[in-house]
Amino acid sequence: MTPNDMHTEDLPPALAEIVEDFNALPVPERLQLLLQFAEDLPALPERYADHPELMEPVPECQSPVFLVSEVDGAGPGGVVHLFFSAPRESPTTRGFAGILQEGLEGLTTQQVLAVPDDLPNRLALAEAVSLLRLRGMSGMLGRIKRQVREKAAAA
After folding, report:
1. I need a labelling partner for 123 at 20 to 30 A (CA). Which of 15, 71, 102, 117 fits?
2. CA distances to 43, 45, 58, 78 from 63, in Å
3. Which fold has domain 13-154?
4. Residue 43 and residue 56: Cα distance in Å, rounded?
5. Is the pTM of this model over 0.90?
6. Cα separations (Å) of 128 from 61, 64, 89, 100, 131?
7. Residues 6+ positions from 101 with CB-CB distance below 8 Å
8. 22-38, pLDDT tens digit by residue?
9. End-to-end CA distance of the chain, in Å?
10. Mean pLDDT for each consecutive 10-residue tract of the chain (155 residues)?
């Protein structure tokens, strides 16, 4: 997908803005933006930092990444909160986690579940990172959506 045929109308506003930002930059600057997301990834709250067993591993990632979703409220209007553990020595993976955290945090379950699965490809990073790394981001998104679906159904 090139910037000319990239579309964002089916994305929530925060994710649309992130996709547009990446597509507006030349490749080296996209990597810098990815590193900024890595730096901005919030620290885990104590309830997860002290209990990593409560988080789900993402084996598609080349680095040890763990995540957990929380849903406040029931049904399609429940509010989603995301938490990630990704090592600082893995800035690409950590950057993907930062993108998902910033782009999905505070959305409703319905909005999160409607995010297209091709989101990682829309970031125009295929020239800058390996497809294996992009598959890791797809793995994160898939796990988030599954967790949100399960938690919304259980609420």
Report:
1. 71
2. 17, 21, 9, 30
3. Sufe protein. Chain: A (3.90.1010)
4. 16
5. yes
6. 16, 21, 18, 18, 10
7. 41, 42, 82, 83, 84
8. 999 999 899 999 999 99
9. 38
10. 64 95 94 96 94 92 92 87 94 95 96 94 87 88 95 82
> 61-85: buried (b, 16+ CB within 10 Å) or exposed (e) per residue?
bebebbbbbebeeeeeebebebbbb
Between CA 133 and CA 103 the distance in angstroms is 19
State pLDDT tens for residues 36-52: 999 999 999 999 998 98
Question: Taking a C-beta distance cutoff of 8 angstroms, is the pair 21, 103 a contact?
Answer: no
The strand pairing partners of 57, in sequence order, are 66
Bridge-partner residues for 84, per DSSP?
A: 67
Rg of the chain on CA atoms, in Å: 15
In a 3-state reduction of DSSP, which class is residue 155?
coil
